[in-house]
Amino acid sequence: MSRLGRRGYTLIELAVALALLGILFVKLTMIISEASKAHREESAGMVLEDQAQQVLDRIAYALIGADPDSLNPSSQKPFFSDRIAFRVSLGVEDGEIVWGDPEVIGLAPDPAQLFWARNENTPDEQIVIWTRAVSELLQDELLNGSDDNVNGLTDESGLTFDVDGDSVTIRLTLVTRTKDGRSISKSKETVITCRN
Amino acid sequence: MKIHIEHRSRRGAGGRRGSALVLSLITVLIVAVLAAGYLQTSSALTKRQGQSIDTKEAFYLAEAGLAEAFSGMMIGKTGKVGSKQAPAKFGHGCFWVEAEEAGNNLIELESTGLYQGGRATLSLVVEEGSESVAALGIFSQQALVVPDGAKLDSYDSSLGSYASQQGSLEVPLEIGSSAGILVAQVLLPTEVDGDVVPGAGASVAIIGQPIITGAQTARIVDPTLPAVIVPGVSLGPGILHSSATPLSLAPGTYGFAFLKVAPNAKVVLHGPASVVFGNLTLQALSEVEFDTTLGPIELYVTGSLRLADTSVVSMTSEDPSQVTVQLPNVTTNTLHSTGEFYGSIYGPQATLEVGTRMEFFGSLVAAQLSFQPGVQIHFDQHLAVLGAQSTLPTLYSWHIMSFAPLGPEPDPFKVLGVVKSALRLPSDAHEDQLLDVTYYDNSGVLKRYSGMESNFDWTQVSDVLDLERDNQTTALTVTKTHNLLNN
């Protein structure tokens, strides 16, 4: 009896060990799960922020070479628009400025989609979706008739343009949902001055 | 017994050590996998963001290049700054700007900025400023005589009328020539309220005791009078207007073979207009009116301009910037009308005589200018200000040409094969420099040159006494300097 007992574990010892291991495993799983979730959210946030910056840069580079007189609509704060039409200079030929075909940047009928189009509504139309993650409203804004995020605009959409002379203020909020349904949003804003 | 205990202990301990190690390894592995995943995501994002930042920095560098080139053009430089082989260093990156003629007085600047892995090329088309001769004031390329009883002075039309500024303002006036100037006072007082500036190597001769309030120093370099560019309009048939009903010429751009206004007839020119006449003649007692209510009038007379004695010139405005008369060819022209003329007359090849009956307000520049005794000419300094503004380049078109990553090598200096420390700063990298040099030429004559270096012939220089580039004094260490300066 004593030889056998010494060779292995008692049932109690085994049960305690298993229980401890179980607790340890559950705790470890929880920690890993939390870390993994935090990592996923962090990654998603970083990706979203990067995407927002890239889209904003694209809009800025497109508008910076625009003819200020071609900006339409030229809504000035507190008015704004979720789309803007313009044309850019392509250079000079025979001493005359060559203007490009009309372009548009704005929200598609599905307001989550931000598109760029050239020759819109013509047979030569070209459309590119730049992102499908535009928020319904700009960050911290609620659909309540008030300027909740104190930016001078009321109930503004996730993409807004307001024009002041040669300058265009662009505001953009992108949103994404994690697997557990939590939403992450990132906002970017810039002001560009049309060079032409 | 002792042996048995040791054997038993070894077996039990061996089983426990193995399970702990496996658990630890699994834990470490999980953490390592998570960390690696996070690191990979971060690294990919950082790389992408880094590329975006590099492109943005390159864009700003290219913009800085355009700004440098544009500011250089404002002081007469070519717009070229550095080159691909020797770019201008700026911060942690570099740029160079190329400039090319694009027709119609346009210059295209193409600026390329490099920053780490980013490269951006921008294009700016600039319209060159037009040459202005208004600052010359009253100028005759050939010898000029200021006759007996003449009154030449100046005022500033932006500050009010000439009468309102009498005795209250000191506005600079320059009466100039590329040859000598004679100022005479015989019977009537002659007054020149300003500088009398003869051409390089020429002098001012004085008869009697005229009043000259300014300096009489000869200019260093004689100005070149740019040719007149006449609008390309086809000329309609000539007009001889003799009716008592005034003839109105509408705003627009057009031309006629000639316009002759008979005695007691009147023609009204309405601005804004750019009108070309073969000949323009006002006979005695005829009248021409310049109506600039709606805009300025530019008149080009390719033949002769003859305004007879007792003809009348009238203006709706006392602003000399509103009327310009240009005489492009070698012609003889007379302004003997009665009245006050507010405007500029420019004839780089023309002979122009101004009579006593006309009081002239504005600027007068001609190949040969002559005045009748008792003439009254008041230079409008505001024309010089407007002229200076028109010489500045203006932005015509801007666009992004390309954004392109430099490739795997993140060092633009290595990509270009240049050593950063050997590169020049933007302000020193312009193709051309403003040069101010005092020197002895090869004949031993002391001379001075002030202008763009590209227009200066260094081979005529023997010894340099004083040298400034872009208003920065350059140290001279040897007497025979020109070869050194060119290197």
Number of helical elements of chain B: 4
Average pLDDT value of chain A?
87
Q: Which class of secondary structure composition applies to the elements of chain B?
A: alpha/beta
| Radius of gyration of chain B from CA coordinates | 37 Å
Main sheet strand line-up of chain B: 18-20-23-25-24-21
First and last CA, distance of chain A:
98 Å
DSSP helix count of chain A?
Answer: 2
Note poorly predicted spans of chain A: none
> How would you spell out the order of helices and strands of chain A?
HHEEEEEEEEE
Extract low-pLDDT stretches of chain B.
1-10, 477-487
- Total strands of chain A: 9
Percent of residues in helices of chain A comes to 25-40%
How far apart the termini of chain B lie comes to 101 Å
Largest interface comes to:
A-B, 29 and 31 residues
What fraction of residues of chain B sit in β-strands?
35-45%
Largest sheet of chain B, in brief, is: 6 strands, parallel, barrel
Protein traits:
heterodimer, A: 196 residues, alpha+beta, 4-stranded antiparallel β-sheet, 9 strands, 31% helix, B: 487 residues, alpha/beta, 6-stranded parallel β-barrel, 5-stranded antiparallel β-sheet, elongated, disordered N terminus, disordered C terminus
Question: Can you characterise this structure?
Answer:
The complex is a heterodimer of chains A (196) and B (487). In chain A, 31% of the residues lie in helices and 29% in strands. With 196 residues, chain A is of the alpha+beta class. Chain A has a domain at 37-82 and 134-193. In chain A, the strands form 3 sheets. A 4-stranded antiparallel sheet of chain A has the order 1-4-5-6, covered by helices on one side. In chain A, strand 5 and strand 6 form a beta hairpin. The longest helix of chain A has 54 residues, at 11-64. By secondary structure, chain B is an alpha/beta fold. In chain B, the strands form 5 sheets. In chain B, strands 18-20-23-25-24-21 form a 6-stranded parallel barrel. Chain B has a 5-stranded antiparallel sheet with strand order 1-2-3-4-28. Chain B is elongated, with a radius of gyration of 37 Å. The chains are: A alpha+beta (196), B alpha/beta (487). The A-B interface holds A 6-7, 28, 32, 35-36, 39, 42-43, 46-47, 50, 53-54, 57, 61, 64-65, 88-92, 94-97, 195-196 and B 8, 11-12, 27, 30, 34, 37-38, 41-42, 45, 48-49, 52, 56, 102-106, 108, 123-125, 395-400, 403.
